[in-house]
Amino acid sequence: MGGLKYAFRDSMRLVFRHWGLSMLTIFTAVAVFYLIGASILLVMNTRHVVNALEGELSIQAYLAEDTSPDAVAPAVTMLPNITKVSVITKDDALKSLQERMTGMSGILTLLGDNPLPASLEVWVDRAENVPEAAKRLSAIEGIVDVVYAGGLAEKLAKFSNFAGHFSIAFLLVAITASSVVLFNTIRIAVYSKEEEIGIMLMVGATPTFVALPFVIQGMLLGCAGSFGASVLLWFSYNSIIDRLRELLPFLPFLEKGALVMKLGVILVGAGATVSLIASFIAVEAYTRRAIKPL
């Protein structure tokens, strides 16, 4: 217990002894973990928007004049990746057209009998599966034409994949940058106490006892930086989302609530883990050389 108290006391002494470097490390960690958190929130919102838009992607399958929608619907329902099928009769199609052309009913009277075909509105589970589903629908007897937003479906699928790959690459770069900064901070602290560490090792102190204050110092700096980043995310997320809603009111974005709070806990945990590993590597390399016999 006494050794642990010494380690905490010495780690705080190290933080304040190199307060300029400690503040620089904290600010760097804040920036890095804020960017990590922001990229994660961006990817989560992107996936949420893509999933919402995917749920609204539908294929319009138009039927031959003598084909009953109820006769074709069961075969369509059995196709893979189909989540929902709605029957649109000739009367339903005409009523929908009349609603969209309110004030222009005179034009519709020129059509005489209802010329609109019956159709099926088909929803697919994912945007990337829409083109294949459209091909399968075209092969069903009784369906004469298939219409869907093919370009939108493909772009949604590509953008979703890009967002996932970008977030992984950015996460690796950011964690590497944070580790390098913390590693150098701890290494400088070790060198500042090089003589004292050497004496402690010579009189019988274990490498773990010597390394513990430096590891705790690194964890304190990493946790402080990631906690600061979490606080910034909490206060900035809503204002950013409100601005995006003004620019893109038709897109559904995630609410703050527990989302940012959970992300903050993850960031603090990541900060503690990264700083622990970086600090351990920095001090372990020196203590290994120090105890190596001449």
Describe the structure.
This protein has 294 residues and is of the alpha+beta class. The protein folds into two domains: 2-53 and 155-291, no CATH class; 55-153, Alpha-Beta Plaits (2-Layer Sandwich). The chain is 73% helix and 8% strand. The protein has ten helices and four strands. It has a four-stranded antiparallel beta sheet. Helix 7 runs parallel beside helix 10. It is elongated and about 100 Å long.
Topology:
Elements: H1 2-17, H2 19-56, E1 58-63, H3 69-77, E2 82-88, H4 90-100, H5 105-109, E3 119-124, H6 130-138, E4 143-147, H7 150-192, H8 194-202, H9 207-247, H10 257-290
Antiparallel strand pairs: 1-3, 1-4, 2-3
Helix pairs in contact: 1-2, 1-9, 2-7, 2-9, 2-10, 7-9, 7-10, 9-10
Summary?
Helix content is 73%, strand content 8%.
- Quick check: average pLDDT? 76
Spans of at least 5 consecutive residues with low confidence: none
| Rg computed from alpha carbons, rounded to a whole number of angstroms | 31 Å
Provide the domain count. 2
Helix and strand string, N-terminal first? HHEHEHHEHEHHHH
- Please report which band the strand proportion falls in: under 5%, 5-15%, 15-25%, 25-35%, 35-45% or over 45%: 5-15%
Residue share in helix: over 70%
| Major sheet summary line | 4 strands, antiparallel
> Treating each run of at least 4 consecutive H or I residues as one helix, how many helices?
10
Output the structural class: alpha+beta
Measured between the Cα atoms of the first and last residue, the distance is: 33 Å
Shape: elongated
How many beta-strand runs?
A: 4
Strand line-up in the sheet with most strands: 2-3-1-4
